[in-house]
Amino acid sequence: MHLHRFEKIWLMLGAGGLALFILLLCVNAFAMGMAPPSNMEMIDPKKVAETPPFDKPGLKQIGDKEYDAYMTAFAFGFSPTKMEVPVGSTVNFHVTSPDVIHGFQIPGTNVNFMVMPGHINSATYNFDKPGEYLIICNEYCGAGHQVMATTIIVK
């Protein structure tokens, strides 16, 4: 079969681009340690209520207007049920679940992730506007899913 010179060039460029893509994918996956977008912290899901800091969920101040929020998502609620922070606060959310997969979303922000049993998922958000922020479960988790919510009050 006879191929025109320009067809050969385009085929070589396409094959070279594909080979480069596969090479970069392998380098990223194996040499650079590609992993899911979390630090893969895990605890025993059967012992969430006994494992610090999830044994006493809530806000802990770690700096000037900076807080760590340790939360648990369970069927069909969040603990703690309400939190208050001052305007301009940065909150680092650390959330896990003892039972099933839940969602964690603060509408109107970029905070949105899945909460899997035993996995500690984290996100950070700076609350620079006062108001009441709703946290909802956006992953169907059972018959009472629609009532699963909590609030953050920013004063």
Automatic annotation (TrEMBL):
<dbReference type="InterPro" id="IPR051403">
    <property type="entry name" value="NosZ/Cyto_c_oxidase_sub2"/>
</dbReference>
<dbReference type="InterPro" id="IPR001505">
    <property type="entry name" value="Copper_CuA"/>
</dbReference>
<dbReference type="GO" id="GO:0030313">
    <property type="term" value="C:cell envelope"/>
</dbReference>
<comment type="function">
    <text>Subunits I and II form the functional core of the enzyme complex. Electrons originating in cytochrome c are transferred via heme a and Cu(A) to the binuclear center formed by heme a3 and Cu(B).</text>
</comment>
<keyword id="KW-0186">Copper</keyword>
<dbReference type="GO" id="GO:0004129">
    <property type="term" value="F:cytochrome-c oxidase activity"/>
</dbReference>
<dbReference type="GO" id="GO:0016020">
    <property type="term" value="C:membrane"/>
</dbReference>
<protein>
    <recommendedName>
        <fullName>Cytochrome aa3 subunit 2</fullName>
    </recommendedName>
</protein>
<feature type="domain" description="Cytochrome oxidase subunit II copper A binding">
    <location>
        <begin position="54"/>
        <end position="155"/>
    </location>
</feature>
<dbReference type="InterPro" id="IPR002429">
    <property type="entry name" value="CcO_II-like_C"/>
</dbReference>
<dbReference type="InterPro" id="IPR008972">
    <property type="entry name" value="Cupredoxin"/>
</dbReference>
<dbReference type="GO" id="GO:0005507">
    <property type="term" value="F:copper ion binding"/>
</dbReference>
<keyword id="KW-0479">Metal-binding</keyword>
<dbReference type="Pfam" id="PF00116">
    <property type="entry name" value="COX2"/>
</dbReference>
<dbReference type="InterPro" id="IPR034214">
    <property type="entry name" value="Ba3_CcO_II_C"/>
</dbReference>
